[in-house]
Amino acid sequence: MSTRANAGGLVFENGKNVSVQSMYDHRVESDPDYVVGRLHELHAMGCDLFRFSYNSTQDREVFREICSRSPMPLVADIHFDYRLALDALDTGFSKIRINPGNIGPKWKTMEVVRKARDLDRCIRIGLNSGSLPRTGGNRVSVMVDTALEYLSWFESAGFRNTVVSLKSSDPEETFAACLEFAGKSSCPQHLGVTEGGGVISSCVRGTWTLGRLLSRGIGATIRYSINGPIEKEVQAGVELLRTLGLRRGGVRIVACPRCGRYSFDSEGFLASVEARLLQSQKDVTVAFMGCQVNGPGEAKNADLAVTGIGNAVFIYKKGELYRKIDRCDAQKAFWEAFEEI
Question: Tell me: the pLDDT tens digits for 41-80?
Fold first, then answer.
């Protein structure tokens, strides 16, 4: 049983170089330039792998161009029709995600497996608790046993470039399934709590579940399933890995919540610069503070800090006051300072 998998040069191995992924939120239709532009932005934020729903062969040529221009490996998400999986492999996707349980008879899955083997592509076996091929018994054990059965099919065809995901909308069920599977197989795992909800609920459920698994060395790639902007999924995944010490580099943002003392709209200022900051690979800390109570203290510990009083904005570099400017000039001065650190 293989302990590693590979998709377009991206290696999956539990507990090592854990990757962040997300999934596109619209049909691609006929605008590959826009899609590729978003992929570059997300990749700059820290996204390592990206998935698309592959619903029809009518999108084949658009996907072929997107695959050829993407800055990171792409995954085709397939349900029900094995012929779409075969087509996606021909189109250029580095990895496909299938649930053999909804593909149909075993021979259909095996046709996909043999083609992926011949083309040296990766397959993720994606099992959700709500779409298991059989019911009854302990659902966690059913998920684990089903994944092991599918793995045995793949290995009987000499295919070992596999990642497995065991997901539920219940965090504890997800945790238990991934933990039990890890005790029986070293196959790389994709981690996530499916249908996690909005930004807050998904981040809480996902962090509690994924953090415990990753701290045990379980998991090779992760996704936060947020009912919201895909940029938030990437940001949450990257932040989790940084917090756990599994990823370094990039901008660390420090910002205080607003209170009755605030004299500088740190919330609004951060919102205006955050997207660009998150695309930077500078290994620095940037602080946004709303008043002079915490501002100077945080400034001493940050590479770059911003605070203010009324119309006056203060920018600190390495703990020292760098510039005092009018609020209307603050964003320009901030970026000038950022480029210098």
Answer: 999 999 999 999 998 888 899 999 999 999 999 999 998 8
Instruction: Give pTM, 2 decimals.
Output: 0.87
User: Residue 309: which of 289, 329, 331 has the closest Cα?
Assistant: 289
**In angstroms, rounded to a whole number, what is the distance separating the alpha carbons of residues 142 and 134?**
8
The class of domain 252-340 in CATH terms is alpha beta
Task: Please name which of 61, 12, 18, 1 lies closest in space to residue 238, comparing C-alpha atoms.
Answer: 18
Which stretch of DSSP H or E encloses residue 287?
strand 285-288
Alpha carbon distance 238, 248 (integer Å): 9
The CA angle 194-241-46, to the nearest 5 degrees, is 85
- Which of 192, 187, 178 minimizes the C-alpha distance to 150? 187
Domain range 4-243, its CATH number among 3.30.30.10, 1.10.10.60, 3.20.20.20, 3.40.50.10860: 3.20.20.20
Residues 6+ apart with CB under 8 A from 46: 20, 234, 235, 237, 238, 247, 250, 278
Domain ranges for the chain: 4-243, 252-340
